[in-house]
Specification:
Number of strands: 8
Distance between the termini: 44 Å
Number of helices: 10
Strand content: 5-15%
Structural class: alpha+beta
Shape: elongated
Strand order of the largest sheet: 1-7-2-5-8
Radius of gyration: 22 Å
């Protein structure tokens, strides 16, 4: 599993790099979620990060965190360390909130043993804290102060920001981690859910230059950092179908849609769907439907 670096984060999210990534004090930045979503936003991949993250998120979401999947409803405060991979499924389009990212070096002087001294960043910790309306307003106030300071010229702004982050962490500890019912009963169900999400994120194909890249069970296994046999077993036991069957079904569905609703030629459609040669696409489609792509288009 590839680890997302700060450089990856900024390039993927904003297509630019800040000037202070290499500062000796470590890196910190803070954002409004509303400024980072939209039709061109790139999905959050299931991976580890090289930095810490704290998010205040409102709305209906599912977080896939290590081997757990947790349903989120209302306002949630979440703490992520570089040690644990995670991703989100957004169940609604009305999510709002804030998040900040920072490196270990940003807090080196504050916690001698590192940020893992804080319970929410420890291995095996529960990272999610459900907030009521009063708690939401309090934490929102802290994020707003961070946003004000990060844009200021105050010489000691990062000292203030460290104080706000520390206050937020200890404020969360006064509550209890959320015991939301896990959406998935076991790791096999979680793997199946994340596999399905990764598969669906590659669609729809919207232009001939777009490419379906995760095409095999092994591709998905590498992305999920599991052995391909483990992935195949989890998918089959959870759904009754093989990983390859799921991929082929989704490919076929998209192929039919492109053949019926675009004027792209057969070669272009095959290439978008990951087939290097038109004959390979022809053979795949005919095996699934008993029709060639051209025949299907003309039906």
């Amino acid at each position: 599993m590839a680890t997302e670096t700060l450089e990856d984060f900024y390039r993927n999210k904003f297509d630019w790099l800040p000037n202070n990534l290499q500062q000796n004090i470590g890196h910190f930045n803070v954002f409004r979620i509303e400024d980072c979503i939209g039709p061109n936003a790139k999905p959050v991949t299931y991976s580890r990060r090289s930095f810490y993250k704290i998010s205040l998120m409102r709305g209906e979401n599912i977080i896939h965190y290590a081997d757990k999947s947790i349903t989120l409803s209302g306002t949630s405060l979440m703490f992520f360390s570089p040690h644990v991979p995670y991703t989100f499924e957004h169940m609604s389009d009305d999510r709002t909130g804030f998040f900040c990212i920072f490196t270990e070096a940003f807090f080196t002087e504050r916690f001698r043993g590192g940020l893992s001294e804080l319970p929410m960043f420890a291995l095996g910790a529960k990272p999610v804290y459900a907030l009521n309306d009063d708690q939401d307003r309090y934490v929102t106030g802290l994020f707003t102060k961070m946003l004000d300071e990060i844009g200021s010229d105050y010489d000691f702004k990062y000292d203030l920001i460290r104080n706000y982050v520390t206050e937020m962490a200890y404020y969360a500890l006064k509550t209890q981690p959320s015991e939301n019912v896990y959406k998935h009963a076991d790791a096999k169900s979680r793997i199946t859910s994340v596999f399905t999400e990764l598969l669906e994120r590659q669609f729809p194909i919207e232009n001939p230059a777009q490419r379906f890249s995760l095409r095999s069970a092994n591709d998905f296994a590498q992305r999920l950092s599991v052995h391909v046999n483990h992935l195949n077993r989890a998918i089959r036991e959870t759904t009754g179908k093989t990983t390859t069957d799921h991929i082929a079904d989704r490919l076929l569905s998209e192929a039919k849609s492109l053949l019926k609703h675009t004027d792209w030629n057969i070669s272009e459609i095959g290439y978008c769907l990951g087939f290097e040669e038109p004959t390979h696409f022809n053979n795949f489609f005919k095996k699934q439907t008993q029709l060639t792509p051209s025949s299907f288009r003309n039906v």
